[in-house]
Design brief:
Strand content: 15-25%
Radius of gyration: 18 Å
Distance between the termini: 50 Å
Strand order of the largest sheet: 1-2-3-5-4
Order of helices and strands: EEEHEEEHHHEEEEHHHH
Structural class: alpha+beta
CATH class: Alpha Beta
Number of helices: 8
CATH architecture: Alpha-Beta Complex
């Protein structure tokens, strides 16, 4: 009998793996609706939907392995990173869905409120928060909405050798800021940004990428701590914030 592996679990949702099947349990039906519809629209490889019985969505496992994980060196080759960049560009060039996604939805007011809480509660020192808040300012500019994944973490891109075999976890997809996806994928893996952009094949403002690294770090640290994750682990979100110092 296949063992049940807990891939990720917190108070909002959980993902389990049983053999070659992933079971996603999510009480938010709208989020699951978004995931299924986004995968149907995306012009890149995505997992096959095996069945859906709310609150559970069953997906087939993708071949290959994740491009890497936060806090550890990526096992992906420069060619694999370039292939990931080409896949992201294909997504961004596709007609965007009619709904808004997560990418680029954070406002300056939201960020200022979160920064105040980080300092007030002693989660991060004021100088670290202040420096990254200033770096993050570059993310607040005019941009054209594109089809974004919205949560393009490195663990969500699967490769086999130098080929992208699929992208998972589309529940945050929608119309958003293209640079948000690029920054999310390279968070903690700045050394691969050039390889990714070689495959992406478009001019990208690197200051905006760095701004999104800072902005994302500031916005997620408290949530991660409250949900049992460790953003202070080597190479993770807090180290990314420190690198901006």
């Amino acid at each position: 009998m296949d063992e049940v592996e807990i891939v990720v679990a917190h108070s909002e949702r959980a993902t389990l793996r049983v053999g070659d099947v992933f079971l996603k349990v999510d009480g938010d039906r709208a989020r699951v609706d978004t995931e299924v519809e986004a995968m149907a629209l995306a012009p890149v490889p995505t997992p096959e939907v095996l069945w859906r019985r709310p609150p559970v969505l069953a997906l087939a496992a993708l071949p290959g392995t994740a491009l890497g994980r936060l806090g550890a060196p990526s096992t992906g080759s420069p060619a694999a990173w370039a292939a990931a960049g080409a896949a992201v560009r294909k997504l961004h060039d596709a007609p965007p869905p009619p709904w808004s996604g997560r990418g680029g939805s954070t406002s300056a007011a939201d960020l200022d409120a979160e920064c105040a809480l980080l300092v007030r509660d002693g989660v991060l020192p004021a100088d670290l928060v202040g420096r990254n808040r200033r770096v993050a300012e570059a993310a607040f500019r005019s941009w054209t909405p594109v089809f974004t994944h919205g949560d393009l973490q490195i663990t969500h891109v699967f490769v086999d050798g130098d080929e992208v075999t699929g992208i998972i976890d589309w529940s945050e997809a929608g119309r958003g800021d293209a640079v948000f996806d690029l920054a999310t994928l390279t968070l903690g893996h700045e050394e691969h940004l050039g390889d990714l952009l070689d495959g992406y094949g478009a001019d990208v403002d690197l200051d905006v990428v760095r701004a999104w690294w800072s902005l994302r770090g500031l916005m997620v640290v408290r949530w991660l701590v409250e949900h049992g994750f460790d953003p202070f682990a080597p190479g993770c979100e807090v180290d990314v914030l420190r690198s901006r110092m």
